[in-house]
Structures are given as C-alpha cells and as structure tokens.
Amino acid sequence: MLFNNKPENLMNKIKKYILPGLLYSAAAVALYFIYQTQIKVINQDVSARDIDPNCDIVMFSTSYCPYCEKAKKFFAENGVAYCDRDIEFSDEDAKLFRELGGKGTPLTIIGNTVLGGFVEKRYQDALDKL
Predict the structure, then answer these.
(1) 62-111 per-position pLDDT tens digit
(2) What is d(CA 107, CA 88) in angstroms, rounded to the nearest whole number?
(3) Which range marks the domain in which residue 117 is found?
(4) How many domains does the chain have?
C-alpha cells in the first residue's frame, strides 16, 4: 500500500515518489521547449541571394555560440560554402538578423529556407532542396 493514515509516512512517500516525479516532468517539459527553439524553421519570404547575391547560404552567427560552431563544422565536413555574418561586429547584420526573426544564433538561410538554431537533419534537408 502506497499510503496509510500516518502523516509522517505520507510525507515520506510524497518526498520519495511524488516530488521526484513532478521535478522530472517539469524538467522534461522545459527541455522540450528548449529543443523546439533549436529546430525552428522560420517562415520568411527571403532567400540567401536576397542578402548576398554571391551566396546560396548565409549564416548569422556570434563568436561565442556553440551551435554556430557546430553549424560551421557541419558545413566544413560537407564541403559546403557559405557566407558568415557575425552580428557582434556589424550593426547592419545585427539589424537584418532581427528583421528576419532572429532570436538566437545561428540563424541560417539555405536557399529559401530560414533556420533558427542548428539541427543537422534540418540543415541537410534544406541543402537537399537547394
């Protein structure tokens, strides 16, 4: 029997079973929302060539962003050329980043697909459409 009539046993059971379950559930929900922001496909009517006529891929990044490093590594490993726009050092690029709906880096435009964050499969899917 999980519960009996003794209050101290009830509190022990709550501490042992219910509280950890609630904490794990809250953590799972928080991680879900964090993950969703990392795989965001932003609906914009823009192409990389609108930003830079010489590039099929434009990435807005910062020097301290670990996801930017992962995206750059992905492009390097796959021999993909791209134009990097560091929003830390260019007010014009930072403004364009915000106009495109950027909330976190990297914000990458692959052809006509605008991707927020870095998830390798999303990048590969966008490259396949290019």
Answers:
(1) 999 999 999 999 999 999 999 999 999 999 999 999 888 888 899 999 99
(2) 13
(3) 41-129
(4) 2
